[in-house]
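To: structure desk
From: M.T.
Subject: fold request, one chain
Message: Could you run this one when you get a chance? Sequence is below, nothing fancy, just the single chain.
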Amino acid sequence: QILPGIAAYETLQTVMSKEDALSTVHGYVEKHAYNSRKSLKVFMCIPGLYRLVPGLFAKGVKKIFNEAAGFASNDIQTRGGVWRIDMVKCPYNDVCTKYGCPELCACFCDSDDITYDNLHKNLLWHRTKTLGKGGDCCDFCLKIKGR
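Reply: Done. Structure tokens follow.
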């Protein structure tokens, strides 16, 4: 999504203001995130499945969002119903910055919040900062309530 998003953003700026182009791309990324969320919520209807989600995130991040993909993270807790990591390197942020549009990265950060917040009444998604919004890391946390 990174390079197509940048290409669309740059192209749109030839026919509209930078702010409108950013809003348009953000809207597209947001719509995609809501569609992803809708799909995930279907699975959350399976009784008890929510209990597996933090562990699945821990395994999935190591497999997909790893150094080979341009990410670097520090695990804080990845068991006991809690998944907490600090992502300290992110290709979304790196590539957007490299191409002179660091403001675009916030769209991708927001899409995480849209996709994973309130997936299930017993799951809590929490993040206080992101690299794409000027933080020193992306502090991801997904946990079962009460953990």
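Reply (cont.): The chain has five helices and four strands. Let me know if you need anything else for the meeting.
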